[in-house]
């Protein structure tokens, strides 16, 4: 299900989270200019790639001649966690008409996925919340990267205001509810442990996949783990 | 390949790969029968992926990040107010940066 009411609710729910993303967008725009991208390229990249961490990673590889294969691999590695987000939302996503499914997938990202999880825990199945939240994040990311590109290399020190912990702090608020249920603690513990242990063993970002899969398997393997909705 | 075109091709490749990562999860799951076990796996997976992201963030960080998120978690457990929890975490991180121990 995907409703306009849900879309509006998603926009409202994510507006304040998008606010905390502003410094990251500005930082990316400024860094991209320094890496040699034109304004048009920066705007296009934010609009159609729309993946902050992957875009920052691309800048590391942005030298002539552009290493297309390396760029493709790094983007795949950094974004591989999207597989897990998509799989977790599959029962809802696959019930949508194709056009809405593609739209939902295009705006699927960490923050609105996490927000959708919160909504599901409260009983909602409306992917409008995911799309509305994603739309706000997308708008904000595009506006702020363009602004950063325009004002140029004035990267602010984000740790001074605690902005660097904002996204992780938001994720903590999302997992707080399932953490209150004892049966969830073991899968969550397994996920955390595997993610940390594999951090230095796997390519960038794949520790998240390993941790998530291990947590998922633990949830099935342990008897008495009840369903979350 | 012309040098003018190369950045646009790189952007298109990145966009294609990224969109692929966003669409493949549901496509694979559509081919898996939706049994109770699969549902339990997906339910645990949804929470685990967020936990894994936070755990990786903490492992790369210092005591400052751990203190900030612990404070945020405590506030969330006590009051169940996401805004208050996030603000607490950010204030702890900001104060920690201003006054190094």
Description:
The complex is a heterodimer of chains A (229) and B (101). With 229 residues, chain A is mostly helical. Chain A has 2 domains: 4-165, no CATH class; 181-224, no CATH class. Chain A is built from 12 helices and no strands. Chain A has helices spanning 4-35, 39-48, 52-60, 68-79, 81-88, 90-93, 98-106, 110-121, 128-151, 166-179, 182-197, 206-221. The longest helix of chain A is centred in the N-terminal third of the chain and has 32 residues, at 4-35. Residues 225-229 of chain A have low confidence and may be disordered. Chain B is mainly α. Chain B has a domain at 1-31. Chain B contains 4 helices and no strands. In chain B, helix 3 (63-79) packs antiparallel against helix 4. The radius of gyration of chain B is 21 Å and the shape is flat. At the A-B interface, helix 2, helix 3, helix 4, helix 5 and helix 6 of A face helix 1, helix 2, helix 3 and helix 4 of B.
Write the layout of secondary structure elements.
The complex is a heterodimer of chains A (229) and B (101).
Chain A: H1 4-35, H2 39-48, H3 52-60, H4 68-79, H5 81-88, H6 90-93, H7 98-106, H8 110-121, H9 128-151, H10 166-179, H11 182-197, H12 206-221
Helix pairs in contact in A: 1-3, 1-8, 1-9, 2-9, 3-4, 8-9, 8-10, 11-12
Chain B: H1 6-30, H2 36-60, H3 63-79, H4 82-98
Helix pairs in contact in B: 3-4
């Amino acid at each position: 299900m995907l409703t306009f009411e849900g879309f509006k609710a998603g926009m409202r729910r994510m507006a304040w989270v998008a606010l905390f993303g502003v410094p990251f967008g500005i930082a990316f725009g400024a860094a991209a200019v320094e890496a040699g991208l034109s304004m048009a390229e920066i705007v296009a990249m934010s609009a159609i790639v729309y993946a902050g961490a992957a875009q920052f990673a691309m800048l590391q590889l942005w030298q002539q001649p552009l290493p297309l294969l390396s760029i493709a691999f790094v983007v795949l590695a950094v974004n591989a966690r999207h597989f897990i987000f998509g799989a977790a939302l599959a029962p809802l996503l696959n019930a949508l008409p194709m056009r809405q499914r593609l739209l939902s997938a295009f705006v699927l990202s960490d923050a609105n996925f996490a927000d959708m999880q919160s909504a599901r825990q409260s009983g909602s199945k409306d992917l409008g919340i995911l799309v509305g939240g994603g739309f706000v994040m997308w708008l904000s990311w595009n506006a702020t990267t363009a602004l950063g590109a325009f004002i140029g290399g004035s990267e602010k020190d984000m740790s001074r205001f605690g902005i660097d912990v904002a996204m992780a702090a938001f994720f903590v608020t999302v997992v707080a509810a399932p953490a209150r249920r004892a049966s969830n603690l073991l899968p969550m513990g397994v996920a955390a442990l595997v993610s940390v242990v594999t951090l230095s063993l796997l390519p960038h970002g794949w520790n998240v996949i390993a941790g998530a899969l291990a947590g998922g398997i633990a949830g099935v393997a342990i008897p008495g783990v009840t369903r979350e909705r | 390949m012309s040098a003018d075109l190369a950045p646009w091709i790189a952007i298109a490749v990145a966009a294609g790969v990224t969109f692929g990562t966003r669409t493949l999860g549901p496509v694979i799951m559509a081919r898996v029968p939706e049994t109770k076990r699969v549902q339990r796996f997906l339910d645990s997976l949804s929470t685990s992926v967020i936990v894994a992201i936070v755990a990786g963030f903490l492992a790369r960080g210092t005591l400052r990040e751990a203190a900030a998120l612990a404070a945020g978690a405590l506030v969330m457990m006590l009051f169940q107010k996401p805004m208050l929890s996030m603000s607490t975490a950010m204030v702890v991180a900001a104060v920690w940066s201003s006054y190094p121990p």
